[in-house]
What does this fold into?
Amino acid sequence: MSLPTKRSTCSSASPASTDSSYSSPPPMKKAKNGLHTPSSQPNAADKVGFPMEDDATPAAANLSRKKATLPQPSKKLVIKLNKAKPSLPTNFEEITWEKLQSAIRAIFLKKPVSFDLERLYQAVDNLCLHKLEGKLYERIEKECEEHISAALQSLVGQDTDLSVFLSLVENCWQDFCDQMLMIRSIALSLDRKYVIQNPNVRSLWEMGLQLFRKHLALSPEVEQRTVTALLRMIEKERLAEAVNRTLLSHLLKMFTSLGIYTESFEKHFLECTSEFYAAEGMKYMQQYDVAEYLKHVEGRLHEENERCILYIDAGTRKPLIATIEKQLLERHILAVIDKGFSPLMDGRRTEDLQRMYTLFSRVNALESLRQALSSYIRKTGHKIVMDEEKDKDMVQSLLDFKASLDIVWEESFCKNESFGNTIKDSFEHLINLRQNRRAELIAKFLDEKLRAGNKGTSEEELESTLEKVLVLFRFIQGKDVFEAFYKKDLAKRLLLGKSASIDAEKSMISKLKTECGSQFTNKLEGMFKDIELSKEINESFKQSSQARTKLPSGIEMSVHVLTTGYVLCIKFIQDYTG
It folds into this structure.
């Protein structure tokens, strides 16, 4: 403790006048009764002053040279209590039990308790204090068992309809819960002392649940009728009838609290669910088209999931949903595909196809769907490719077909990589059914799009078309055939000035170079160099004196030259001279 900042005098004053904050506790002396009492003599330390520099006196200086008395150690005050545990009055245990028994009976009979609950609580606490709690626990258990047994027996033989019977069971359970909580509040000391000290002894609440479970099992009629009524009520709700969901929730929580939910209810519930949806699946597959059926399945899954949220135990959700998926989906996978996949694809019904994809993924049936897609592409594409009468429109038909498949792949099949590869493989098969003819037709299609006479097409649209055709080009196995036809058509366009856009021509060459390499496009690029050189020569000739003197007036001459190796010259001459 720090010293005070200022003190006016320093003297050997009596202890009463000395600042208490600077004095040691007075020594204790032992009295005759064994207790310690404070000594009447002041501590020597109380007589020692602490001079300050500003008002020190010679007397104070002399005192400071005196030998200070050391403070003596403090002693503790010890008080010994020899009070013994108070003894209980005679017959206290029996009197207390009579009162408790009367209170318990009043609680179970829904009558007012004639004793003060606080006094009853204190009486139970006193019995626990005197180690009499074991017998008290047994008595309470026996009394509760009598009333619980009687309550459940009252439900036997009830000639009422199932909904009324369920209400009676709910009332019985709710009364039991309220009564056990009241009894527990009175005998709380048993839980806090006796039960905690004895691990093998149940709490009062657990004891009550065990008794209820025991006597419910001894009344199989009540349990079986309750389960039957619950299952019928759930079936009614599945058939779109209104039911009391609160009642369902309370009774299923009762089964859960009693620890008999899985054995007594869930097993029968899943069996009934399987039978219900097996029959419904067979019926609806015959009555509905595939799109409507899939919507129905999706709705049923949503309903059952909501049912688990509202009153079915959360642990039942997984086996419940699996049961529905098995009966409504797994058993009908092939029927759904055979009956509905092609119509949905033909109609470009992406939303319904997405629903099919999502539902099939739940039951690991995507492989069946992928195979159906492959079969559909080959079957539909075969009609396009093999119809020689429609060769003129074949490339455009393939482009439209491929575009529709890409939309379905993106919007319905979630860009599944396996499905994307299936589309590519199937198209490669189609393109090469008439390999050389397909290559020729694709080259002719490009020639048509790149000709100057193709009016009404913007540069953006033309570029998009070139990109789409390039997709078909990738599937061609005999690319040398395509090169021959494309090179001949390009020469015609360049020599006759029929090209719609030199930029578009060069763009296509660049795309082909990216796909096949520079060796594939060397000759094509050489044509452009020859045309550029021809233009330069023509311009030089027009500026020359020979052009002015030798050409008749009004006549213009333009000459374009392509290297012989770049084109099939003989065939070209025949086309343009014959």
